[in-house]
Amino acid sequence: MDKNRVEGAVDQAKGSIKEAIGKVTGSEELQAEGLADKAAGKAKSTVGQAKDAVRDAVKK
């Protein structure tokens, strides 16, 4: 598993937590940070998946 996939999953989790805390506290800024973290995490995961796919294709 590519490290980008792991980092992406961590970023998505952090983003979900920030977003939830932002909703509870009424902080739109924290909600926005959470959404941005989740988007960045998803992008990292996608890059990691692509790297894994290329690596697997080369091995075959």
UniProtKB/TrEMBL annotation:
Annotated CsbD-like domain residues: 4-56
InterPro entries to which the protein is assigned, alphabetical: CsbD, UPF0337_stress_rsp, YjbJ_sf
Gene3D superfamilies according to UniProt: YjbJ
Pfam families: CsbD
Domain of life where this protein originates: Bacteria
Region listing for Disordered, in residue ranges: 37-60
Family: Belongs to the UPF0337 (CsbD) family.
PANTHER family attached to this UniProt entry: UPF0337 PROTEIN YJBJ (PTHR34977)
Protein name: CsbD family protein
Source organism per UniProt: Lichenifustis flavocetrariae
